Amino acid sequence: MDKKAVEQWQFDRFRASLDDFPKGSIVACEEPDFLVRGDSRTLGVELTRVYRQVDDAVQPLQEAESLHRRVCEKAQRLFAATSDAALQVNVTFNSGYRISLKRVAALADFVASTVRSLDPKPDTSFTYGSDFATYDRLPREIAELRGWRYSRISQTI
Question: Closest Cα to residue 87, out of 113, 59, 121?
């Protein structure tokens, strides 16, 4: 999802959670992120993420999310370069281990090559790492890989 689509999703959830959210037409813009134009006034809504400060032993959430996204995006590019299979793959990261920028390429290569070697057939799924046969083959930063290949999905986005 692009940034604006994520903001729209977050705004819709926020608005739905408040019974007394102001009535009016919603206009997406930049600063603020949204305007709510009512009969007598206009309200600006700016979406903001707040992160708690953590001690040095814990990886900040936004850093971990960014590195997780990099691993997944790179793995997707690596897989797509050698396969035309359209898959849905979920990578569960182990929150007990920090991911460093230096490890992104190796983790992405592991994910892409593992999924490629599993070679799921249409309308099948796989789980890798949650059983005794495969859990010790995962890098410590990754807890599990799950994937699905649906015959009705024909392209990767």
Answer: 121
* Rounded distance between C-alpha atoms, residue 127 and residue 35, angstroms: 44
The DSSP result for 81-150, as a single string, is: HH-----EEEEEE-TTSPPPGGGHHHHHHHHHHHHHHH-PPTTEEEEESSSTTTGGGS-TTEEEEEEEE-
Pairing mode of beta strands 88-93, 42-45:
unpaired
Say what the pTM is.
Answer: 0.67
Q: What is the pLDDT of residues 91-117, one digit of tens each?
A: 999 988 889 999 999 999 999 999 999
Half-sphere exposure at residue 74, Cβ-oriented, CA atoms within 13 angstroms: 16
Contact 82, 119 (CB under 8 A): no
AA identity, residue 56: D
